[in-house]
Amino acid sequence: MPGITLGDTVPNLDVETTHKNFKLHDYFADSWTVLFSHPGDFTPVCTTELGAMGKYAHEFEHRGVKLLGLSCDDIQSHKDWIPDIEAFTPGSKVTYPIIADPNKEIIPQLNMIDPIENGPSRALHIVGPDCKIKLSFLYPSTTGRNMDEVLRALDSLLMAAKHKNKIATPVNWKPDEPVVISPAVSDEEAKKLFPQGYKTAELPSKKGYLRVADVS
Ligand code: BEZ
Question: What residues does the Thioredoxin domain cover (predicted)?
Fold first, then answer.
């Protein structure tokens, strides 16, 4: 995946959106943002995805996280498309801004290109308040994303950040489930960080590296 990736600062581009025009860093300031791209307006998969994001908007808002869409058409087209998006997904309200990129000039700068098609993809970056990319998905245009997974991955990032990356979340983790203690944390430090205690899995290797803590 060439271009900006995990840990890189998203370029501070001037963008035109369905709400107003702004610089990306002004939008990202002081909160986490889910920035997600779409190949084009009035296309079936994109219509379902943007509708799902509209339906989940309150979940992101509840976590203090902003949404920012991008689709490779102009503002008038986005505005004309929104009623279709909301009609197809009952309960959806497209309250988040959608960036216009009719000439596909922004997507390469945000590394939202499908390298096989050499064209638009379904890319998604979760951007931290420091304007750096914390997580990226890259799907081809033929595969719609799973918004439950976006939310689950976001919850994992927020949980790890809350614990200064001293914890990680295991496979299929969901909020309220136990987390694992990072291998970089010694047992001595773990005892201080988790005074409520933690469990070390007994494994054939006896290496004691899989330590599970309840932080809920
Ligand atoms: C879609 O959103 O349905 C779509 C867009 C581009 C290529 C294929 C599907």
Answer: 4-159
Contact by Cβ (8 Å): 167, 182: yes
Active site residue 72: no
Over residues 146-165, mean pLDDT:
98
Beta strands in the chain (DSSP E): 14-15, 22-23, 32-38, 65-71, 98-100, 113-114, 119-120, 122-127, 133-139, 167-168, 179-181, 199-200, 211-213
Residue 1 has pLDDT above 50, yes or no: no
Distance CA 74, CA 112 (A): 17
120 lines ligand 1 (CB under 6 A): no
- Rounded CA-CA distance 203/210 in Å is 9
Per-residue pLDDT at 2? 67
